[in-house]
Amino acid sequence: LTTGNEGNVYRTDDVDIEVSSEGGHNIGWVQPEEWLEYTVDVAQAGNYDFNIRVASEQSGTMRIEMDGQDVTESIDIPTTGGWQNWVTVNKQNVSLTAGTKIMRVYIISGGFNINSIDISENNPSNQTPYSGTPVAIPGIVELENYDNGGEGIAYHDLTTGNEGDVYRTDDVDIEVCSEGGHN
Hints:
Blueprint: E1 17-19, E2 25-27, E3 35-42, E4 46-56, E5 60-66, E6 69-70, E7 75-77, E8 82-96, E9 99-109, E10 113-121
Antiparallel strand pairs: 1-2, 3-9, 4-8, 4-10, 5-6, 5-7, 5-9
């Protein structure tokens, strides 16, 4: 909706692009009713998870369309505490048909930055018990032993990396527990 590229980098059209603190570039200064389109090829029909990297000092909403059809409904974008303070917002189990499509990222409300959208097959069969064996019930479930399978399958965590830097190396925040073990 504005003339020129507010960030003045990467491209010379009217899309507002800036250098991203995560490397590369991100779309910034978005406003309601703005949109971007991408030609994509969905390898096979199925359910997919959309993991969207966003940053903002205010909340907003967006949606994703395929060939003019809303496939995600409204996706809430949280306040992240800064224009380059990135978090991943997940929209899971989005049903897609196979084939080449035009994907539209449509801004509904607010203003925020978008860095990327990681689209992956939602395949619960990739989820396995951490120890290789399901936890017996009745029994104690040690929460740091959440299943293998990764973000959006076995867990959902809003920060990058393990803040406690112990026990596991994915994005779930784990620390040493005063009662022994980890939490």
